[in-house]
Amino acid sequence: MSINLSKIASQKKIKYFLISFVDLFGVLRAKLVPAQAIGDMQKNGAGFGGFATYLDMSPADSDMLAMPDPSSLIQLPWNSEVGWLASDLVMDGKIVEQCPRVILKRQIKKLEEKNMVMQSGVECEFFLLNEDGSEVSDKRDVAAKPCYDQSMLMRKYDIIKEICDAMLKLGWKPYQNDHEDANGQFEMNWHYADCLTTADRHVFFKFMVKSIAEKHGLRATFMAKPFPNLTGNGCHAHVSVWDMKKKKNLFIDKNGDLGLSKLGYTFIGGLIKSADSFSALFNPSVNSYSRIGASNTLSGATWSPSTVTYTGNNRTHMIRIPDVGRFEVRHADGSANPYLLQAGLLALGLDGINKKRKPGKRLDINMYTEGHKVKRVKKLPTTLQSAVALFQNSDVAKTAFTSRVVSNFTKLKKRELKEYS
What we know:
Blueprint: H1 5-12, E1 16-22, E2 28-34, H2 38-44, E3 46-48, E4 64-68, E5 74-75, E6 82-91, E7 94-95, H3 100-112, E8 116-129, H4 150-155, H5 157-170, E9 174-179, E10 185-190, E11 193-194, H6 195-215, E12 219-221, E13 235-243, H7 262-274, H8 279-282, H9 288-291, E14 310-311, E15 319-323, E16 326-329, H10 338-355, H11 367-370, H12 384-392, H13 395-401, H14 403-420
Helix pairs in contact: 3-10, 6-10, 7-10, 10-13, 12-14, 13-14
């Protein structure tokens, strides 16, 4: 049954819609459309000049149209007059292949052809800073080990409560919030869903946290490593694969090692094979590589991986199997594009499933203290330049996303690196 956005606007008293999309650099773009015009926009799309965004386009290109997905509608909890919509991009009647949401949907379709869906959840860490972003907003938040500190958490009760209440209202099923390992750092968790829904919610969550922080006179950042002496912002993803009805978790095998099925291990095999080549997606900024492989922080640990390994319930590895039927990938940081994060994980998993890749021997050691003893372990790249080169030359990436999309992304990243230098 089709969703009529004009009727929805009348029923929910929405006066304006944000027709939004995310470009290859993770920037959230939008047009603010009055409810009286949403019927036409739903049919024909909202027009944008693609060259003005990070999508590797020319000023001579035709109008790029953002086609809103009515099923993605979120009414802003802090401003109910406005409805937010995720969109897919179209140009000259054709889908824009380098649109990140489209890239993810292409991977989803490939898995659906195997009668499977990927469900995922993300752990989004962020800092609450003063208004100009120069320092942590709570001047009393100075402990060397502030993780889970109750007093520091409750001093930010008003803002954390407002964000959590918003997620409750939206039906996301949030279940816990905490002060994280760095001064001024927090994490808020909500229930997993199919990976497209999770990506849409991830995009909106970042927008919501920043918007509500501004209401409180603060600045929120998901930057990978805002402060050199503090733990950076990770974006850990929890992954499982289910049947099409989402009734059966296909990663569960009570007789399997750590309760994970052969399908789950082949998925991990794909990650182990090519995670280093996808670092440009999971760690997309120059600043990201201040987090990967960083020296110990004030708290005593970085909580970020530097090698491509997996283990059981042990947070010093890139992949952790904390429970039956799922695993956690700790590779990505807070600056990751929500759609490309999920697309990258799914592409690597599909490669593992299709090629029946084996993940190799599990390592049950503390990688922070004993990792140097392990021979022939693959390292994650230590600079964005090397990460982009690996992605550009990755056959797995080209097979998953097409050579053209890989070229679109790497061309823009090389230009960014040139401008940075």
